[in-house]
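Help needed: design a sequence for this.
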């Protein structure tokens, strides 16, 4: 690292990338940012970041974070003509990818970084921009332990839960397992909420009780407003959830792990997509559970705390 002023680079200024990078900028770090659509990066420029035109211009940084949408994007911003590794005379010391990509793509980028003498950390995240703003983002990180220890202070600025999970690409499997758990928990929450309502209990009352019990969690509290008011503004769609279930079930097959509940939930998520809920939040599993029970839900239209402490 540089002596007292580490140079931080950031690639990817979508909603999530901007929320995460802004925490580093506001903390006073020297951050250079870039995005395919430059105007999105200018939001961080207004906070004090330096905006550059391509990832290639971040090659002199100590640590470069990446937050892009897909496998092809990660390959492009690292090994493309204007990518982070395109300059043969320079490369960052550590590259940290926070995107949700396949283990295969992650391994390709890790190898490309290694050839240039750069350490690579896979660091997929759990959360959304509102979770980031609340300081409650969580990250699973895999790669060289020394690189993790060096970057850990910056992880701590971005989120509150940072777990080193091992070598190579194992963080990718952690993220898949996490998202499968999201789907299974939401399906269980949906079915039981429908049972409570069918029995004459208001959703808000049942969920308040449950959230205050040992069964309550940050996640159940966070999803409660959607369940109560039927607001399915997307944070994570059934299409994306189905992708992670498919990846998880493939890993289960490869590792010879029986997963009957996950298999059933995979089919339920597929069914929700078939019902037309492609672009809604995956909390629409509640509507599908209600449809199966012949129950028409109505929004309660009341204010409900999501537990994040951010308005």
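Sure. Designed sequence:
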């Amino acid at each position: 690292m540089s002596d007292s002023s580490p140079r931080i680079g950031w690639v990817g200024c979508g909603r999530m990338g901007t929320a995460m990078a802004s925490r580093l900028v506001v903390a006073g770090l020297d951050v250079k940012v870039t995005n395919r659509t430059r105007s999105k990066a200018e939001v961080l420029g207004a906070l004090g970041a330096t905006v550059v035109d391509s990832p290639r211009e971040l090659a002199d940084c100590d640590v470069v974070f990446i937050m892009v949408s897909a496998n092809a994007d990660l390959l492009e911003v690292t090994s493309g003509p204007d990518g982070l590794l395109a300059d043969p005379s320079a490369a960052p010391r550590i590259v940290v990818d926070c995107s949700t990509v396949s283990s295969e793509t992650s391994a390709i980028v890790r190898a490309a970084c290694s050839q240039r003498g750069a350490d690579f950390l896979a660091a997929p995240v759990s959360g959304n921009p509102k979770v980031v703003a609340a300081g409650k983002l969580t990250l699973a990180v895999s790669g060289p332990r020394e690189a993790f220890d060096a970057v850990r202070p910056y992880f701590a600025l971005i989120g509150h839960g940072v777990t080193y999970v091992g070598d190579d690409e194992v963080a990718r499997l952690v993220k898949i397992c996490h998202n499968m758990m999201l789907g299974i928990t939401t399906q269980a929450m949906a079915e039981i909420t429908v049972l409570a309502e069918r029995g004459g209990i208001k959703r808000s009352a049942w969920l308040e009780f449950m959230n205050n019990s040992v069964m309550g969690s940050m996640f159940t509290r966070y999803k409660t407003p959607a369940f109560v008011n039927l607001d399915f503004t997307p944070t994570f769609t059934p299409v994306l959830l189905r992708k992670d279930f498919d990846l998880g079930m493939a890993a289960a097959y490869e590792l010879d792990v029986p997963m009957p509940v996950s298999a059933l939930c995979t089919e339920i998520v597929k069914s929700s997509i078939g019902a037309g809920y492609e672009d809604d939040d995956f909390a629409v599993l509640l509507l599908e559970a209600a449809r199966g029970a012949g129950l028409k839900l109505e929004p309660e239209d009341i204010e409900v705390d999501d537990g994040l402490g951010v308005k």
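Residues 170-198 form the longest helix (29 residues).
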